[in-house]
Amino acid sequence: MRIGVLTSGGDCPGLNAVIRSVVHRGVVDHGDEVIGFRDGWKGLLECDYRELDLDAVSGILARGGTILGSSRVQPAHLRDGVQRARQHLADLGLDAVIPIGGEGTLKAARMLSDAGLPIVGVPKTIDNDISATDVTFGFDTAVGVATEALDRLKTTAESHQRVLIVEVMGRHTGWIALHSGMAAGAHAIVVPERPFDVTELAELVGKRFAAGKRFAIVVVAEGAKPRPGTMEFDEGGKDVYGHERFAGVARQLAVELEQRLGKEARPVILGHVQRGGTPTAYDRVLATRFGWHAVEAVHDGAFGMMTTLRGTDITLVPLAEAVEHLKTVPPARYVEAECVL
Ligand code: F6P
């Protein structure tokens, strides 16, 4: 068979492990030919690709980013390009395309699949917010990076008796905030699923200082917002792809907390460092398993499906189900984290 693979949307540690796995399983075990489209859907629409043989994927398992490049594409642009994509698949003699991506990519994959293109999706996102899979690769790495940062920030916060408001990624969900906050023993965790009240937050941090503690660490997901009417807040806007461009919740919270507590408060924005660099062993294994199963799905003709982790097993779910809703942090998890916000 001839298989095309592409990586689309924000990058994520483990993408190269999937690409490598698709080539190993496809080329070595099945005698397939594999090509990689450059820069996501753009490569498919512009027929920009490279052959992927064993040499091409040698040494990439532990490498961050994606050797194929990635980009975002506007959904309308892709919709207009369905015919072109179909033609390119035919010209290249492709039997299937495996797009590796997050929410936006999987929605696009579903649209192309509904239009009759042979697609098997692979989910990725550091945010871990795709509901049809228990975990996405990249999440474990991002949590590790954020946890290490929080551990380091504790020592400087304590030296200066400061409140540090640490902003982690998570546009719609607070999985990275919750897990890194729990792992590092943060004093408050603020997630988008539960709008915060700055008065309650200030009280919580104030009590800590009153009890003789010399610093506080607040972890906040970038998409967190205050409860309406509790604080003046600039939410930011959207970019041309419809993605949030946040005005900076940590920065705004630091100003408020400093004023209310009379303690120095500093925002720390971890940003893209959470997405870069080498994947953890867990993410490499999950990504490799997803790649392996995606090739099997292609050989089984299971198009319109996505690989998924359920418990310890990799199975398939319809793409339609994968993009139905986001996986948010359930309230029970706040309780476990002793999150009072
Ligand atoms: O991959 C998802 C994500 O990490 C979000 O948490 C974040 O809002 C977004 O990517 C930012 O990506 P970019 O700056 O590449 O648009």
Overall description:
It is an enzyme of class 2 (transferase). It catalyses: beta-D-fructose 6-phosphate + ATP = beta-D-fructose 1,6-bisphosphate + ADP + H(+). The record marks 104 as: Important for substrate specificity. It is found in: Cytoplasm. By secondary structure, the chain is an alpha/beta fold. It has 2 domains: 2-138 and 279-322, Rossmann fold (3-Layer(aba) Sandwich); 141-275, Phosphofructokinase domain (Rossmann fold, 3-Layer(aba) Sandwich). It has 12 helices and 13 strands. It has helices at 15-30, 41-46, 75-80, 82-91, 103-114, 139-160, 175-184, 198-210, 249-261, 281-299, 319-322, 331-336; strands spanning 2-7, 33-37, 49-52, 96-101, 120-123, 163-168, 188-190, 216-221, 237-238, 244-245, 265-269, 305-310, 313-318. Helix 6 (139-160) crosses helix 7. It binds 6-O-phosphono-beta-D-fructofuranose. The site of 6-O-phosphono-beta-D-fructofuranose (F6P) has 11 residues, from loops.
